[in-house]
Write a structure and sequence with these properties.
Helix content is 54%, strand content 4%. The chain is mainly alpha-helical. It has a 7-stranded parallel β-sheet. Strand 2, helix 26 and strand 3 form a beta-alpha-beta unit. The N and C termini lie far apart (89 Å).
């Protein structure tokens, strides 16, 4: 028994067990009794590992255990003798499960050591059926494709466990090493025609269906997954895995996959996730145009599409009709399919959302010449009405000659040529995509690109319409840059003359003041030139995007110095942008996670701030009787639970809003807005009194 073995004798016991295991694994044609023996040996090995965790040789023992238990011959025998029969010992599977449990969420080095070896053994021998022995692990493989290594201190012990990283692309991020080994296994499987049907159906396509189900999970109504959250990571990694597995989608499952994937486009998702969805659908349509192409045409003609959904459909269709991956499917049947897609795209030329309208303009300008001869003069029937083809020519002429649309085309002439689908559906291509703040792939989505382009196009077309202070600010920035670059004096004469011309105009005093103020001081003032109040609104405990967006708008209107949020990436979500009305562009945002909130509150107290909690407690003071300090942090609670008790210890005073009705409480954004206004009113009154006493 290991429990009765002295500590000094554990290493020799471990070595003996390993030698016995190596001998058994080396025997030709091993039978199930030998698997039973290996299971007994593995029990001894793990008992030693758990008992002798402080040994300097522990990492070597872990690697040795993995090397022994995850041999190709052992996994093959397990599949033949135990898995197919539904009974019998499976020592490698048991060892795998044990190591995954030992690794858990806090010891990723154990998981990596395990997966790096077993993923090689899954492939099997060169002469055998590749991938067969991975079938018993298929549910584990689904989880591992989404696995994300947790962060841990660089000084943590045992981090030097060898996980054989040479097998992975050099650009593999540290949070993706484990899943990269599993992805590498799939990338090494042969093409569908050379893969056994058993492996294709029972392993690969089983994994595709399971991962697709996870990828299509809908966020809560009206919300998108918060960037950096566990849900966001799972959805992103699911679609990345599907991109890699797209080559295994056969006719047998194509319709099922197409229905789910196209339906998922209606979900409220970030552009980074939609990028991988679009890549997967473009590649799948190239492989199965009859199924995916037909569904694409059907969907684009639906009138009830969301703006995100139609933008993705336009991007996918553009790549497949006029772009880098144009295919014959849309050009056959006398262009009926091409026209069908055009019919669906045309109405979006009048979309209320700029980015979807711009994509439709780019697409229709290139698509119309594919279905009609645009060089022919407009043709009218006997009633002097334009014929169908002439209507298309008229639309094309407008798109061609309109100056704003011409500017847009020049900036985005390669819009439908930039997706490198062939690369992104490979292991190296997927893992080489830059990683963002949330440690997930952060590719540039075409909607983000088109939004920036629209802003530039608008600025170029309406430069004279910009607010005077904004034009002044641009000139000052240019002048500072010229000076920093050491340009000659006479090279700045034109800018100086322009500054004089601006000063001759009648300017709003606040706007002029903002324009002339040093760039380094501008963070102390808001967009209207007003000095920011020394009010920090802390919304770390608020998780609903509409409330955070409303608070951002309130903070900008009343010139609060900072809005503290649980995740500043929320500002990129469409629902946040629509409610905040661009307020996030004019206020300072700070990110503080709930786990860091208590320390942050104490830090603000040390800086002289008074911490005021908006919460109904036995000692809460009525808002109308509260006298706010100039330097105030307003702490808002969770939407239902309020402020947790552990944070109340850092609060100097709790306040509550008087109520005349029977409903228990106000919405957190409304409560915050009322309190911010009361603070603002007191500060304005205090300034007025100071002026009156001078």
């Amino acid at each position: 028994s290991v429990d009765a073995t002295p500590v000094v004798a554990l290493p020799p016991l471990f070595s003996c067990a390993v030698e016995a295991g190596e001998f058994l694994a080396s025997l030709e044609n091993p039978k199930s009794p030998l698997l039973s023996s290996l299971e007994s040996i593995s029990t001894t090995l793990f008992a030693v590992l758990k008992e002798d965790t402080s040994s300097s040789d522990w990492t070597n023992a872990l690697n040795t255990t993995c090397d022994l238990m995850f041999k190709t011959s052992v996994l093959q025998e397990e599949y033949r003798s135990s898995y197919l029969d539904g009974s019998g010992p499976m020592p490698a599977k048991r060892a795998f499960d044990t190591l995954i449990r030992m690794g858990g969420d806090s010891k990723p080095y154990i998981v990596k050591a395990c997966v790096s070896r077993i993923s090689v053994a899954w492939l099997g021998p060169v002469s055998g059926e590749v991938g067969l022995s991975a079938i018993p692990y298929r549910d584990d493989i689904v989880r591992l494709l989404l696995f994300k290594e947790p962060k841990f201190e660089e000084s943590a012990s045992h981090q030097s466990v060898t996980e054989k990283p040479d097998a992975l692309p050099e650009a593999t991020h540290q949070s993706s090493v484990t899943r990269a080994f599993v992805m590498s296994f799939f990338s090494k499987l042969p093409a569908v025609g050379d893969l056994s049907n058993t492996v294709l159906v029972e392993l690969v396509q089983y994994v595709i269906k399971r991962v697709l189900d996870l990828a299509c999970l809908q966020p809560a109504k009206g919300k998108a997954f918060i960037s950096g959250s566990d849900e966001y990571a799972r959805i992103t990694r699911s679609w990345q895995a599907l991109c890699l597995l797209s080559r295994f989608v056969t006719e047998d499952i194509a319709q099922q996959v197409a229905d789910k994937a196209f339906s998922a486009l209606s979900n409220n998702l970030h552009g980074e996730i939609r990028y991988f969805m679009e890549v997967f659908l473009i590649q799948s349509t190239r492989i199965h145009p009859d199924v995916f192409g037909t569904r694409l045409i059907e969907d684009i003609q639906k009138p009830s599409l969301t703006l995100q959904q139609v933008s993705s459909l336009l991007i996918i269709g553009g790549n497949l009709t006029i772009g880098r991956y144009s295919c014959d499917f849309f050009r056959s049947s006398k262009d009926v399919r091409m026209k069908g897609f055009l019919v669906g795209a045309l109405p979006w030329l009048s979309s209320t959302q700029g980015f979807s309208r711009a994509i439709a303009q780019l697409l229709c300008h290139s698509l119309i010449p594919q279905v009609v001869d645009v060089s022919v003069e407009l043709d009218r029937d006997e009633g002097n009405q334009l014929k169908d083809e002439s209507v298309l020519r008229s639309v094309y002429t407008f798109l061609e000659e309109n100056s704003d649309m011409s500017r847009l085309r020049k900036k985005q002439e390669d819009f439908f040529q930039t997706y490198d689908v062939d690369s992104v559906t490979t292991l190296g291509g997927l893992l080489s995509i830059p990683v963002g703040d949330g440690e997930e792939a952060n590719p540039e989505h075409k909607i983000d690109a088109i939004k920036e382009c629209l802003a530039e196009t608008y600025d170029e077309a309406h430069v004279e319409d910009a607010p005077v202070w904004k034009q002044m600010e641009d000139l000052l920035i240019n002048a500072d840059c010229n000076q920093a670059l050491g340009e000659e004096e006479n090279e700045g004469i034109e800018d100086e003359a322009q500054l004089v011309n601006f000063q001759r105009k009648i300017l709003p005093i606040d706007a002029l003041d903002l324009a002339l103020r040093s760039i380094s001081e501008q963070h102390l003032h808001n967009a209207a030139g007003k000095q920011k109040q020394k009010l920090v609104v802390c919304a770390t405990l608020v998780d609903k995007v509409p409330n955070l967006a409303g608070l951002a708008r309130t903070c900008e209107i009343f010139s609060a110095s900072t809005l503290v949020m649980p995740n500043v990436q929320i500002r990129k979500q469409d629902d946040f942008k629509s409610i905040s009305a661009s307020a996030d562009g004019w206020i300072d945002l700070e990110e503080v996670k709930e786990g860091d909130l208590l320390g942050w509150l104490h830090q603000k107290k040390s800086e002289g701030y008074s911490i005021v909690g908006l919460e109904q407690t036995a000692s809460s003071k009525c808002l109308t009787r509260m006298k706010f300090s100039e330097k105030t942090v307003l702490l808002l609670g969770k939407e239902k639970e309020g402020i947790p008790i552990e944070f109340l210890s850092a609060v100097d005073q709790c306040i509550e809003i008087p109520q005349l009705g029977i409903i228990r409480s106000l919405n957190v954004h409304v409560s915050g807005a009322i309190t911010v206004w009361e603070y603002t009113k007191q500060q304005l009154k205090g300034r007025k009194n100071k002026i009156g006493t001078r």
